[in-house]
C-alpha cells in the first residue's frame, strides 16, 4: 500500500519513508506504523543504510530547529531524499514553507526546490517578482513577523499591498506572533477583513502592526526597567528590619524617660510615648517616602541613560532627599542587626551613599566599580517604595495610633523646601486628583482639593512649585506612586478600579481588560479577538481607519451585547467541581458560567468557543463549557461537555488546545475518565436514584429466584475490553486523520456547499483532532448536514472518496462482537442488534453507554449514516461526488454506487454499462453480476446502506440493464473508468 502524505500527496511506488528512531532509522511499511502527521525522510526505497542514516540525521536537525511542521516543506536532505509529513498533519503548505525558511534562510532556500514554487506556497499564485524580492529582503534581515503577516494576508491583499507589509520593521519582531500558524491567522483575517474593500484592509493591517509593535516596545522597556530591581522581593525582610528599627527607637526613648536600662514591667506599661515620638514617627514616614521616590526616579534614569548620566539627571531629587534625612539617622538605620536582613531599615541610607557618589566621595574607585555600586543601591527601590506605601496606608487607616492633635499639626507642615528643589517630576499629579483627595479630606487639610490639584498641575507645567504645599495634601504620596508607576513602564498612576476607599494603582491595566476589547499583545491575538466578534455576529465598519475603530464597530452590534450578557445554568454536580484539580493532570477544572468568561477564554485561546453555536447551546442547557487551567490561571484546553444518554453521567464532546491544536494527551486522557464519573444530577434531587423511605415498614416478601443476568452484566466487561482493543487498532493513523478532517469541515445549509466565506474556508471547530470527539460531532449532524459535510470535504480536498469509503468500513463494535465467546452471542442473540441500522432495544442501550464501548458504537452509527449521505449525493447527481469518483476510482464504491443508481433509477442522465438482461459486465477484467465471489455481489450490502432496495435489482437489470450517471463516463467511458479502478489495486 502506497503511503499517503500531508496535503493529499501519495508517495511514488519506488519511494519509502523512514522515521528517526533512537538506534537506527525505522522504515514506515504501512500507514498505521506511525502517528498521523509524523515527520519522515522520503527517498528511494532501495537506498543504502548510510544514505538513509544521513537523510534521517538531516531530518532530525530540521525538526529540532524548525519544528515538525517544517518537514512538510519538502526540504532536500541529500542523496535523493526529501523531508515530508505523513497524512493527518494540521495546517497547509505555507505553514511548512515558512517554518522551513526560518531554519534555511535565503541562502538555503534552494533546498525547498524551485523558487517560484515556495513563493506561491507563501503568497498564492498571483505572487510577483517584486513581492518575491521583498520577501527575500525580509527573510535575510530576519523580519519574520512581516513575512508571517504577509503570507497570512496574501488571500486578501494585492501584490503592491503585500510589498508594503513585507517592508515593515519592528525590533525583536519574532515576539509579535504567539503560536498561531499562518493558515490559522489567514482564516481569522478572512472572517474580519473580507467584507471590507481591499485598500482598507491594508491600511488596517498597517495600523495593527504599529500598535502591536508599539506595545512590544513598551513591554521591552518595562521589562528592562523591572530588571533594574532584584529578582527576589525582599519586602518581608525589609518589613521585619524596619519594625525592629522602630522598636529599638521606641525602647531607647522608654529607657531614657524612665532613667533605667531595665525598667520595671509595670512602669513600662504605664508609660505613654510623648508627642515628640509621634512627630518623629510621622517625619520618618515622610522622609522614607521621599527617599523611595528619589530611588525610583534614579532607577528609571539609570536604565534610560546609564549609571553615570542617569545619576547626574537624578542629582536634584537625590540631593533633596538626602537633605531631608537628619544627621546620624542613616548610620542608625544601616546598623547591622543579627538574624535580620543586611539591607538598611530605611531607604535614606541608599540615598546618602548615592549622594556621596554625586559629590565626588570615593573617586578612587573605577568606573565599573562605581556603576556596580549605583545599581546595587537601586536594586531594592521597589521594595522600599512598597513598604513606604504600606506604612502610609497604616497611617491613613488609623493603624498607627497617632494622637489627633499631633496628626493635625503634622499635616499642616510646609513642604515648600522639598518641592522647590524637585518639582513634581515628569508625570505630575494624576489628572483630576481622584486618587487621594478623599484621604486628605479625612486628615482635615484645609482648602478645596480640586483647587490644590490645579495649583500642583500648573506648578508642574511651569517648573515652579505651588505657593504652599502641606503634608496632609499627600502630593508627596502621589509622587511616590507615580514614580513606582514609571518603574513599571507607565506614564503615571491611575485611580484604582475598585469599590471602597479610593487609591492609586501604580501598575494599571492597559485598557484591554474588557472581554473582546482591542488587544495588542500579539498580531495573532488581536486578529483572533476580532474574528471572535465577527463569529458572534459583529459587522465591521467599512469606514474604520484604525484597528481600534474596527474592533469597536464589531463590538457595537446589539447581537454582541446580547451574546456577552448570556448567563449559563450549570448543573449542580459540575458546579460543585468548579476549581477542582483533575486527578493525574495537576490542572484545575473551571466551568464557564457566562458568555463573558467564554469571550476571555476565546481571545486567549484563539478558538471559537465563544461563538454563537456554543453560547446558544450553553444558554439552552444542551452543554456545559469548561477549561483546564494551570496554577497561574492560564487556559490549557477548552472542553464541551454534554449529558451522556440514555445512561447518566457526562462525556466530552469536543476538546482542543490553543489555536485549535490537538490537546496534550496527558491532559485529555485523565480528563475523559474523570468526566465519565460525574453524575448528571445530585442524588438528593433525583427521586429515581434514591426513592423516599416508606412511612411504614412493608411486609416481608417471599424470596425470589435469582434473576437471569442481563446483557450488561454478562457481556459488558468483556465487550468493553474488546471494543477498546478494536477501536485502538482501527481508529488510528490515516483513519483517524480522515475522520477528524471530515468532522472539522463545516457543512453548508441543506447539505450544499455552504454559503459565505466561512464555508469556503473549511472552518474547524475545537476538538476535531480527537477521533472520539470527531465521531461525536459527526453523529450529532442531521442527514442533510452530514451530506453537506461529506460534499465539502471532497470539494475542499482534506479527503477523497476512497478515504471516505474506507472510513465507512471501519466498524470496531462489529469486530468486537465477532471476537466474543460464541456462547455469549448465542445466549444473547440481540447483541447483533448493536450493529444494525435500527436503534438498539432498551435492554442493550446501557451497553452503548459504557465509556469504552460508546466510541466504537458511535463509529458504527456514523459509518452507516455516512454511506447514506454518499448515496444521497449520488442520487442528486452531485458534481463534486462525480469528480471524486472519476478522479480516483476504486472498485467497492464504484460497484455499490452503480447498484444504487440502477435500483433507484434517479431522474438523471443515465448511461448504459450493460444491456438489459445481460449478466456480463464489459471492461477489463470482465466481471459477472451473478458471480457470488465477484465485486457486484459483494457490493450489495454496501448498496443497501447507500439507500438501494436490492430486492428489485434483477428486475431493473432485466428492464434497463446496468446503468450509471453519464457524468461518470465523460472521460473515456466505462471501460477506462473500470480499468483505472482495477489498475490502482483498489478492489
Automatic annotation (TrEMBL):
For region Disordered, the annotated ranges are: 681-719, 741-770
Reading the lineage from the top rank, the first entry is Bacteria
Name assigned to this protein? Uncharacterized protein
Amino acid at each position: 500500500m502506497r503511503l499517503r502524505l500531508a496535503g493529499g500527496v501519495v508517495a511514488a511506488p519506488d519511494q519509502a519513508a523512514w522515521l528517526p528512531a533512537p538506534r537506527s532509522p525505522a522504515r514506515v511499511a504501512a500507514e498505521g506504523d506511525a502517528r498521523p502527521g509524523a515527520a519522515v525522510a522520503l527517498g528511494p526505497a532501495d537506498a543504502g543504510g548510510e544514505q538513509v542514516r544521513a537523510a534521517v540525521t538531516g531530518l532530525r536537525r530540521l525538526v529540532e530547529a524548525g519544528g515538525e511542521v517544517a518537514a512538510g516543506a519538502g526540504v532536500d536532505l541529500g542523496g535523493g531524499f526529501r523531508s515530508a509529513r505523513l497524512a493527518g498533519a494540521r495546517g497547509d503548505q505555507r505553514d511548512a514553507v515558512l517554518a522551513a525558511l526560518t531554519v534555511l534562510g535565503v541562502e538555503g532556500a534552494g533546498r525547498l526546490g524551485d523558487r517560484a514554487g515556495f513563493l506561491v506556497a507563501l503568497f498564492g499564485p498571483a505572487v510577483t517578482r517584486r513581492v518575491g524580492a521583498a520577501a527575500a529582503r525580509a527573510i535575510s534581515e530576519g523580519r519574520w513577523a512581516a513575512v508571517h503577516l504577509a503570507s497570512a494576508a496574501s488571500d486578501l491583499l494585492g501584490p503592491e499591498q503585500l510589498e508594503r507589509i513585507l517592508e515593515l520593521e519592528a525590533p525583536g519582531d519574532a515576539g509579535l506572533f504567539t503560536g498561531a500558524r499562518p493558515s490559522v491567522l489567514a482564516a481569522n483575517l478572512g472572517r474580519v477583513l473580507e467584507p471590507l474593500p481591499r485598500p482598507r484592509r491594508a491600511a488596517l493591517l498597517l495600523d495593527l502592526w504599529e500598535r502591536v509593535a508599539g506595545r512590544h516596545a513598551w513591554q521591552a522597556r518595562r521589562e528592562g526597567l523591572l530588571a533594574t530591581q532584584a529578582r527576589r522581593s525582599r519586602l518581608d525582610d525589609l518589613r521585619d528590619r524596619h519594625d525592629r528599627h522602630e522598636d529599638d527607637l521606641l525602647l531607647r526613648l522608654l529607657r531614657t524617660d524612665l532613667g533605667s536600662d531595665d525598667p520595671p514591667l509595670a512602669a513600662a506599661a504605664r508609660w505613654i510615648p510623648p508627642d515628640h515620638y509621634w512627630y518623629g514617627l510621622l517625619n520618618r514616614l515622610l522622609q522614607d517616602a521621599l527617599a523611595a521616590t528619589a530611588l525610583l526616579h534614579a532607577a528609571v534614569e539609570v536604565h534610560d541613560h546609564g549609571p553615570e548620566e542617569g545619576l547626574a539627571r537624578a542629582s536634584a531629587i537625590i540631593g533633596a532627599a538626602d537633605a531631608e534625612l537628619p544627621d546620624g539617622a542613616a548610620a542608625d538605620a544601616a546598623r547591622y542587626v543579627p538574624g535580620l536582613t543586611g539591607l538598611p531599615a530605611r531607604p535614606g541610607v541608599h540615598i546618602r551613599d548615592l549622594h556621596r557618589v554625586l559629590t565626588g566621595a570615593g573617586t578612587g574607585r573605577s568606573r565599573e566599580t562605581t556603576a556596580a555600586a549605583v545599581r546595587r543601591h537601586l536594586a531594592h527601590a521597589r521594595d522600599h517604595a512598597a513598604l513606604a506605601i504600606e506604612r502610609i496606608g497604616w497611617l491613613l487607616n488609623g493603624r498607627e495610633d497617632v494622637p489627633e492633635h499631633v496628626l493635625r499639626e503634622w499635616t499642616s507642615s510646609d513642604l515648600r523646601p522639598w518641592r522647590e528643589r524637585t518639582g513634581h517630576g515628569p508625570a505630575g499629579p494624576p489628572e483630576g486628583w481622584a486618587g487621594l483627595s478623599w484621604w486628605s479630606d479625612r486628615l482635615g487639610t484645609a482648602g478645596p482639593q480640586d483647587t490644590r490639584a490645579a495649583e500642583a498641575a500648573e506648578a508642574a507645567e511651569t517648573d515652579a512649585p505651588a505657593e504652599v504645599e502641606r503634608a496632609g495634601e499627600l502630593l508627596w504620596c502621589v509622587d511616590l506612586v507615580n514614580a513606582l508607576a514609571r518603574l513599571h513602564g507607565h506614564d503615571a498612576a491611575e485611580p484604582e478600579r475598585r469599590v471602597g476607599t479610593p487609591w492609586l494603582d501604580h501598575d494599571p491595566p492597559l485598557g484591554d481588560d474588557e472581554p473582546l476589547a482591542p488587544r495588542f499583545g500579539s498580531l495573532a491575538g488581536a486578529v483572533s479577538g476580532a474574528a471572535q466578534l465577527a463569529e458572534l455576529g459583529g459587522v465591521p465598519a467599512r469606514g474604520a481607519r484604525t484597528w481600534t475603530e474596527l474592533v469597536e464597530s464589531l463590538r457595537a452590534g446589539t447581537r454582541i451585547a446580547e451574546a456577552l450578557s448570556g448567563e449559563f445554568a450549570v448543573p449542580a454536580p459540575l458546579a460543585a467541581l468548579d476549581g477542582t484539580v483533575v486527578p493525574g493532570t495537576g490542572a484545575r477544572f473551571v466551568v464557564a458560567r457566562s458568555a463573558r468568561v467564554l469571550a476571555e477564554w476565546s481571545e486567549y485561546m484563539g478558538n471559537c468557543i465563544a461563538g454563537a453555536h456554543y453560547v446558544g447551546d450553553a444558554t439552552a442547557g444542551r452543554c456545559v463549557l469548561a477549561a483546564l487551567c494551570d496554577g497561574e490561571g492560564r487556559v490549557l484546553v477548552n472542553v464541551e461537555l454534554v449529558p451522556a444518554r440514555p445512561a447518566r453521567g457526562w462525556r466530552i464532546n469536543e476538546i482542543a488546545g490553543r489555536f485549535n491544536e490537538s490537546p496534550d494527551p496527558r491532559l485529555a486522557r485523565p480528563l475523559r475518565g474523570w468526566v465519565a464519573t460525574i453524575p448528571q444530577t445530585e442524588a438528593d434531587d433525583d427521586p429515581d436514584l434514591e426513592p423516599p423511605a416508606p412511612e411504614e415498614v412493608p411486609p416481608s416478601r417471599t424470596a425470589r429466584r435469582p434473576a437471569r443476568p442481563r446483557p450488561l452484566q454478562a457481556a459488558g466487561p468483556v465487550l468493553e475490553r474488546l471494543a477498546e482493543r478494536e477501536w485502538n487498532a482501527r481508529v488510528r493513523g490515516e483513519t483517524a486523520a480522515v475522520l477528524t478532517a471530515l468532522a472539522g469541515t463545516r457543512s453548508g445549509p441543506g447539505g450544499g456547499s455552504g454559503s459565505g466565506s466561512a464555508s469556503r474556508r473549511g472552518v474547524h471547530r475545537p476538538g476535531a483532532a480527537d477521533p472520539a470527539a470527531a465521531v461525536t460531532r459527526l453523529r450529532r449532524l442531521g442527514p442533510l448536514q452530514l451530506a453537506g459535510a461529506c460534499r465539502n470535504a471532497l470539494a475542499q480536498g482534506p479527503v477523497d472518496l476512497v478515504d471516505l469509503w474506507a472510513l465507512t468500513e471501519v466498524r470496531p463494535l462489529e469486530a468486537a462482537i465477532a471476537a466474543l465467546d460464541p456462547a455469549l452471542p448465542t445466549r444473547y442473540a440481540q447483541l447483533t442488534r448493536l450493529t444494525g441500522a435500527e436503534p438498539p432495544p432498551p435492554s442493550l442501550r446501557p451497553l452503548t453507554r459504557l465509556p469504552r464501548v460508546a466510541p466504537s458504537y458511535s463509529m458504527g452509527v456514523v459509518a452507516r449514516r455516512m454511506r447514506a449521505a454518499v448515496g444521497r449525493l449520488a442520487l442528486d447527481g452531485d458534481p463534486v461526488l462525480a469528480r471524486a469518483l472519476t478522479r480516483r476510482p476504486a472498485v467497492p464504491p464504484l460497484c455499490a454506487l452503480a447498484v444504487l443508481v440502477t435500483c433507484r433509477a434517479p431522474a438523471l442522465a443515465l448511461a448504459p454499462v450493460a444491456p438489459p438482461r445481460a449478466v456480463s459486465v464489459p471492461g477489463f477484467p470482465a466481471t459477472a453480476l451473478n458471480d457470488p465471489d465477484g465485486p457486484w455481489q459483494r457490493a450489495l450490502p454496501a448498496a443497501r446502506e447507500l439507500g438501494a432496495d436490492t430486492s428489485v435489482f434483477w428486475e431493473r437489470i432485466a428492464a434497463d440493464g446496468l446503468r450509471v450517471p453519464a457524468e461518470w463516463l465523460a472521460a473515456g467511458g466505462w471501460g477506462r473508468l473500470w480499468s483505472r479502478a482495477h489498475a490502482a489495486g483498489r478492489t
